[in-house]
Structure formats: structure tokens, C-alpha cells
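Sequence only, no structure available. Ideas?
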Amino acid sequence: MNAPRPVLGIINAQRQTEGGGFVVRRPFPTGRVDNVDPFLLLDEMGPVDYAPGKAIGAPDHPHRGFETVTYILSGEMEHRDSNGGHGVITPGAVQWMTAGSGIVHSEMPSNQLMRKGGRMHGFQLWVNLPAAKKMIPPRYQGFEAHEIPSVTMADGAIVRVISGEVAGVRGIVDTTSPVTYAHVTLPAGAAIEWDVDEGHTALVHTFVGSVVANGTEAVEGVMVVCDRSVGPVHVTAGDDGAEVLLLGGQPLGEPVARYGPFVMNTREEIIQAFDDYESGRLGTIVASGSGISR
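Reply:
I predicted one. C-alpha cells follow.
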């Protein structure tokens, strides 16, 4: 049996404002950590409680060169894009959008959330695309909560696997490159062993309670970054239980040129992306709006 892979360090998430004004808790990118290859961004949205008519989101904006993954725990977001993709992301559901060569999309509060108010809580992850696939056609994948594979372990731990494989469960999303994304709920003292492919990035992000991951303690808002050597990741919950995201992926090892909504390999490609967007070549969203009415 392989020994657990070493821990390189931890990242403390920082709070900041994004989109239409919602506050996020972000491990990266920050002034200290730009990205963790192949991941470009992780934002925890909320939890925040909105009064009726006060919910906010991210109006129409473009992307090129990477993928956005939105996973909702509470509340609802309505997605629309210039490629015809549309869906309301409800609690436990996920949207995996491949921007590829370019897309315009919006993520706004659903009609119900806007009318009635309520709690909003979720995550957005950005996954980089390799240079050879940055200009592939855009694609939208949306899955409801009941479609996401899960398993309940003997000690009560619940593992929901969006992509990749954890605890013998394979996720539902067809990823462009190898990516693991799992949500693990751990009762007090419960544990999970995650077998990560050799050479892959392995991140454990705690967002409720506290855990010990390969000997390193992490409380709410702290991400544990493991070495890319061979070996599993062991995660054990503290006395009050915990919830964590497990994020794994194959590093690309390529130059990253990013500016706002575009992530390419060179500055020239970023300039071209802005020119294509401003010229209308990324398209427009049909029937887009504020989320109050559709």
C-alpha cells in the first residue's frame, strides 16, 4: 500500500466581490496563488440569505479557452448562453460549460429565488483547457441532483462524484481532460481515502467544519494542496463533522495568459479574443434578462 502523498501547503480563501455584486470566498486566484494547474479559479458563492427581489448574479459575459463548473448547494441559478444552452441549476445540481472557442453566458437568480428570496450557496470552478483544445466548439452539460452518482460509506460519509472516480464511484460529467470533482459530507470522525492518479493535482477544500488531510489540519475556508507524487489522500473529519470538495486533475504544464473572462496561452491570443467578442463573433444570448422574468 502506498503511503499518503506529502502535503505541499495550505491556501486560505479570501473574501471578495464578483459578478453583479455577490461576495465569494476564493482560495485562488489571489495575490499569493495565481492558479493550481489545471485549475484557474475556485469561488464559494455565499452562503448568503437574500430578501425578496434582492438576489444577484452574473449578467451576460464572455469566456474563451477554459471550462466553467457551477455546483449549487442552496438556491437556484438560471443559465443561458449564446450556443443555445439553458437550464435552471437547483440544489445539488451541476452545470459544466466548455467555453472553448468562445461563448457568452449569464448566471442569474431564478424567478423563484428572485420573487421569494432565500439562501444562495454554491461553487464555481474554472478548469483550463490545453492549447490544442482551447478553440474546440462550446458545449453545455447540465445534471440534476438525482443524476449525480453517490455512495454512503459504512461510517456515514456521503460521497457525491461529479466527475472522475472516488470511492469506487464514477462521475457523470464527460470531461475534456482528466478531472475529478467530488463533494464529501463527513460525520464526526468519519474518513475517506481518495486514490489520486500519479502526477495529478490533488486538492482538499474544506467549507464546513474541520478535517485532517494527510496529517494537515484544515478548518472552514482552508484548502490543502498535496504533492503530485504517487499516493492516496486520507481525509478525516473533526469532532463536528465536515464537508469538503475533492479536486483532482492532470496538469497541463503550459503558459497561462489570462485577462478577465479569457484564458489563453499568449497575449496575442487574448487580444484576438477581445476583438472577436467586441465584433460579435462569440454570439449573443437570446431572451437574456435580469432573472426577474423570462
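Residues 288-294 have pLDDT under 50 and may be disordered.
Hope that gets you unstuck.
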